[in-house]
Structure formats: C-alpha cells, structure tokens
Amino acid sequence: MTISRRIAFGTAAAVPLALATLQQARAQTATPSTLDTVVKRGTLIVGVSLGTPPYGLTNPQMEPDGYDVALAKLLAREMGVKVEIVDTVAANRIPSLTTSKVDIVISSFSITAERAKAIAFTNCCYVDQQVALGQKSLVLTGNDDLKGKRIGVTRATTNDIAVTRRAPEGTQIQRYDDDAATSQALLAGQVPAIVTSGGLANAIRDRNPALQLENKYVVSEAPMAIGIRRGDPDLLHWLNTALFMLWTNREIQPLQMKWMGAVNAELPRYS
Description:
Elements (H helix, E strand, L loop, with lengths): L2 H27 L4 H8 L1 E6 L8 E2 L5 E2 L1 H13 L2 E6 L5 H6 L5 E2 L13 E17 L14 E5 L3 H9 L5 E5 L2 H9 L5 E5 H10 L5 E17 L3 H16 L3 H9 L11
Parallel strand pairs: 1-4, 1-5, 7-8, 7-9
Antiparallel strand pairs: 2-3, 6-9, 6-10
C-alpha cells in the first residue's frame, strides 16, 4: 500500500471515531430537559400566587387551593410526581422561572407577546376577562370615564398594561405590588375602582356584599396559560399534550365550574 493510500485509509477510519467522540461529548454537556429533571426528582415545583382567589388562595386548613393549584395537582398526577406550590406574586412570575426557582408557573398568567420574549407559554388553560370593579354608585361605563379617577391595578400585570394603554389623559393609575394589596385598596376606599381579572373581581364582590360592588365594564379579554422557560421543547410538548387530554377527558371543566362558576366553551390552541 502506498503512503498516500495509507493516509487516506487512516483518515477514513478516524472519521466515525471522531463523530462518536463528538456526540458523546455533546450528550455529556447537554442540559437535561426540565421534564426529565422533574420526573427524576419526583416533584413538580409550581409557582402560584396564593393571594389571587379564585386562582390561588390558602384554604381554612392552611393549604394551597384554587383553580391554578388544582390544575397543578392534575398535571403532577399525569406526570407521576408530587407537587410543590411556591407562593409567587405577579411581579416575580417571570424571574422565578428564569432563575429556576420553579419549574413552571400557573398563576392567572395572561399571554402577551412581550412576555413571550422572556418565557414560553403553553396553550390556554383558561380564558378570563379583565374588568373594572367598583361601587354601584360609581359612574364607570368605559375607558373614557376613567378620566379624573383613581384606578388601582397590580403592578406588572396585563391589567396594568390594559389600563395604561387605554386610559385617557388625566387618569390616576395607582399601582400595587400584588393582587391582595390592590383588592385591599378597593375595600378600604383608597381607590373607587380597580381593574382585575373577572375571576378575582367576582370573588371580591361575593365576599364583601355590604360594599355593593359590581363589575362596571370589560376592559379586555385575558387568555391565560402556563409559563415555562424558553428553549425547553420537551416540557412544552408534554404540557400541551396533558392540557389537551385533560380537556378532552373533561377533567378541567369541573375545575372551572367549581372555582369560576362558568366553563370556557373551548380553550384556544396555537396552530
């Protein structure tokens, strides 16, 4: 065999070995999917705001409860793991994900294109409305009536975004750090009205009949989903599959009726 043929033969034989070594190195350095990590750990860590009834709350037994908590339990059951609920205020939902404090966030989490720059959303798990809630005596029929009034919202929420975009000049927007503080501001008379989710508005109204509160008008629709970290396709695919099957098997609908008093006709899905 000539020297040139020996070199060619040796090079050809080395290529498969080099590829195998490269693939092995990539496999060793690749970040495992969150799905694999959760299954191996045996616990799904879920961020939920426990100050946002009926989505998240603490029941009389001092246990996490509400629609978002119940949905988290269903998903953990389907995954074959336990669930751990981490109380997460609205402003910390995205940071809790990006810093890996939680695996997913189910916390009345409205989908927006801006948020999708930082995290990924699953298909919808509930479609709510953003409403203005105030006393019956308050004249508030639309965004134009906000002029000259003080309106409470929770900071960094889609309620905040909706009011900021739609309110006329002269509206005084009072921002609070979480839904509990926003609700309390209304109950204490610090603001005559707040903009919040329809579910929370109904809970506040029903728990405080003496204040004669009512939903004044719908500000916008609020499709809600589960938030996960970007670049995690395995978990995203699994969650969308689980949501689809839970809806098809009619396990989500009873949760909506129990906590919201109504059931979505359908849950929108990405094409």
